[in-house]
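Researcher: Going back to the complex we discussed earlier. I've cleaned up the inputs and rechecked each line, so this should be the final set. Can you rerun the prediction on the complete assembly and write out the structure?
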Amino acid sequence: MKQKVTLKIIAKEFDVSISTVSKALKNSNEISEEVREKIKAYADYYNYKPNSLALQLRAQKTSVIGVIIPEIVHHFFSTVIDGIEEHANKRGYNVMVCLSNESFEKEVSNISVLTNGSVDGVIVSIARETQKKEDYNHFEMLLKDGFPLVLFDRIVDSLKCDKVIIDDIGGGFKAANHLLEIGSKRIALLTTEDYITVGALRKVGYRKAMQSAGLEVDEDYVFKINDTKNLYRQIEKIFHLEKVPDAILAVNEIYAAIAMKIAIEKGYKIPEDIAVLGFTSGLISKFTSPPLTAITQHGYLMGQQAAELLINRIEHTGPKEFQKEVISTGIKIRKSTYIGE
Amino acid sequence: MKQKVTLKIIAKEFDVSISTVSKALKNSNEISEEVREKIKAYADYYNYKPNSLALQLRAQKTSVIGVIIPEIVHHFFSTVIDGIEEHANKRGYNVMVCLSNESFEKEVSNISVLTNGSVDGVIVSIARETQKKEDYNHFEMLLKDGFPLVLFDRIVDSLKCDKVIIDDIGGGFKAANHLLEIGSKRIALLTTEDYITVGALRKVGYRKAMQSAGLEVDEDYVFKINDTKNLYRQIEKIFHLEKVPDAILAVNEIYAAIAMKIAIEKGYKIPEDIAVLGFTSGLISKFTSPPLTAITQHGYLMGQQAAELLINRIEHTGPKEFQKEVISTGIKIRKSTYIGE
DNA sequence: CTGTTAGCGCTTTCAC
DNA sequence: GTGAAAGCGCTAACAG
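Model: Rerun complete. Updated structure for the full complex:
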């Protein structure tokens, strides 16, 4: 790669000092019209651009924010990144994305790499492994130094920092409630294992809705799916219940789609025999048949909020106390729970 | 944010010179055991980490690669990023992601920001608007300076740089061929407008397959869908043909899913009356009913290859001539084209 | 064994 | 009007 033009090179070219060039390019009227013009012309011609590393080092500010997510091939997370990008760009920041791949070690190393001066702050959604280990030391170190950190979606309450979460309890409630409203009595819950907070919280919401309807939660109707094993086999167990449920609430759209597919294969009519509802994060719900009613998650908004909190923290332009933003969910009613039209 | 520890600070603490500290931390045996240990202990305790900006500025190397994609909320592109990340990390690089949002202007500004010293090279998939304008000046400038650039997926042939593309012609051929093999005679093609190369290339493959089968392509069976308008209405036109096709080949999974849905609504049996096949980039094909046969696209591999080409270019560790890697497609046969079992 | 110096590219204050 | 010098944080050649 060819040597890039620097102030030094231009200075040598015209036999002036570096600072003269710097000022000329900034249109400082300390510099004579004549010199200014010829320097600008030269710089322009050779496509001079100030080296941003030098600027950053000097300014002690990179205008870059780091983002660490567990995986990117996941509609929800891409949506969040999109939101982060949008807000960050608007405020003059760039985004550096790192993946933890759900690994504790990679998360720690990402944090370490990012916080050595390359970024002004980080936004992270915690890796599963970290959540399981409950080792948040790497974050605590950062916070001790007052390094700007925003947690989203997969958060941990004990960390003193800004957070933005989806209202999963509300979402679970909204979901179960919708099913109750359409007349479901026996709602099966397809959820994740307990240490995955998202699943656990949605379950809380489900439980709340059941209780407000005066129904008690039958634990036989709660299925904790292990993501690493055969999903079909695990989900099929729903249909081994003595009394097959008349509704299925799944905490994500894959589980929902699979459950629906199995139900149809077994000859059940959706939604007449069994209504199905999922939490969506992608495009699947729209294209199943029947299309799935789903709780929607506004990842984009979440990303924007996270970026806003972070940048406010970086620029000291928000409240001093740590914020916890809650993004409420929506519900998109489709044919899997809706008879009529 | 608290002042980070620097060599200077440590040096002052022990009343030694900065270089002594630097060496001590590098375990240089130029420094006495005693001094070394106390400095290391201190650094460790205060969690010293060398400022990477300073290192980068000094080394004239950032070990960061920039990636510019049209959008991230798109399974294919996330997959590619995933692949880029994987390879980049393996070789000690980090990834900075920017979105062009299909806008020419944003692409230009992204290039400009990234290439001012923040990254050692960039990987880009060109924005639609840029393709439409055919203005590739921002890339030509880079190449003139010998700046490492790799184009993927949406490329332009005239640019002299490394490229990696999907074998779209082969994919179109493979797709049409499969349909012909299962006995389809009248294959409708659902494609994009011509300036979208991907669609155009797949069409070429389709045409080739038809011709090798001794069939001629009836342009009435080619539907160019405009992504901004009502997809349903446009796709429905397939069924207005005097002779309804016995197979539909769609250049992406959304079109395929919609076409299939409309067909079913109209009472056609899939695949008996009409076989449907799409190019997949997400999870939709798997969850439609029947599940869609699809040409698969290996974005992950593509990302890895792109990163490899770029890093080889950066490190001068590959061939001097520009490479053009072609990633071949796969085909996943599902029920939408398969009778039996 | 330890320190001085120069330099990466840039900005800015202060002299001249 | 122009330039010298300091400094951002670090490394490395060289001097002592």
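Model: Worth noting: The two ends of chain A are 64 Å apart (CA to CA).
Researcher: Good, that matches what I expected from the previous run.
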